[in-house]
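Review form for a predicted model. The reviewer records the input and the model, then writes brief findings.
Reviewer: anonymous (R2)
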Amino acid sequence: MKQKYVVLVGPIAGVENRRENFAEAESIAREAFDCAFVWNPAIMPQGKDLHVYMTICFRHISEASMFEINGVYDSIVIAVPNIGEKSGANVELAYARYLGLKIATLDGVKKGLVK
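Model under review:
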């Protein structure tokens, strides 16, 4: 089995415990998979414009797709819970779907439903 390139997506703006939520998601991903890389968007510095954050997140989703296409890693996007309708994470998930990446929920990973 190839190592995984994991991209976490979920709500960040206005979520007080975002760092803790994403740290837990990263830990779960690392425990569930042989991870070569886990992109955790909650580590980005605060105070930037939304377009900066989204550009960085899109770049990581694009890289996951490139690594998948080139057979370097198995790539997966994991959705962290509580993504609201107006969350930028919905745009990220739509982009990941468009690129054909595997998408899983964090709950599915926790339960071992995703390989």
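Findings: The beta strands are 4-9, 35-39, 74-79, 102-105.
Further findings: The two ends are 10 Å apart (CA to CA).
Recommendation: see findings above.
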